[in-house]
Write a structure and sequence with these properties.
This protein is of the alpha/beta class and about 290 residues long. The protein has helices spanning about 15-25, 60-70, 95-105, 125-135, 180-185, 215-230, 235-255, 265-280, and strands spanning about 5-10, 30-35, 55, 80-85, 85-90, 110-115, 145-150, 160, 195-205. α1 links the parallel β1 and β2 (about 30-35). The termini are far apart.
Amino acid sequence: MNVGVIIASLGRPDSVAVLLDRLAEQTQRPSQVILSMESETDAPPARDYPFEVECIFGSRGSCVQRNRALDRLRPDNGAVVFYDDDFIPSRFAIAGIARFFAHHPDVAGAHGLVLADGINGPGIPHEHARRIVDTADAAGDPEAVAILARTHGLYGCNMAYRVPVIAGVRFDENLPLYAWLEDLDFGGRVPGPLVHTNAFCGVHCGEKRGREKSGRRLGYSQVCNPVYMLRKATLPRQVAVRMILRNLLANHARLFRSEPWIDRKGRAAGNWLAIRDLLRGRVDPRRILEL
């Protein structure tokens, strides 16, 4: 099975270069690699890879950038994997994706194991992330294909889908910029089972550059986007409520002991702006463009 790779990136050319180097070490080469960026300043230095790298440019935003790439995906790809630009995959990842879908013809999409995740901390440096992955890879290809759990959506840092199944599905561009929870919204509109598997893995560095420019915007999205998705029926009610409460509690509990990489005061303010708009009946994910 041919496996294409889509990477949406903004302001992290060095991270993209590291990811491309890891893709060049794959035991099965990706059939197509698409980098979707805002401008040429986001692109890593040009070099030769054992696969074609297509760079496309346009307006910023996780959803719109991924959609542009989907429009360029070739039909000979049986599967596509979406990698965050700060993800370091195992060198067996592409082969594992192809093998997994071959073993599970009924599954529409899957996300792999995250060996370490820097998203909730200060981030994991590239060198450390590579060492973690290299240690796991030293044992060789595990040839795993197990389904670990059924899920309502996939974790966007390393999620793979069958291309024919998502032919008519696109990311919701009403979720602008960082597009909080866009991966779950996308999965909620894909027909067929979504699962967590051990067939492919890697490390999510949780790079902070280009991620949180405004705590108010992200805080607004933390309340608004789950409500928006609940109304669309792409997120179960209990999951939406749990996410909103968890973020409200975290932001307010750490208001005066904020982590250096998180704007807790801004997030808390954004939470309350969204609650106010919700009570007024005008909550809209696009409002973060005004904040």
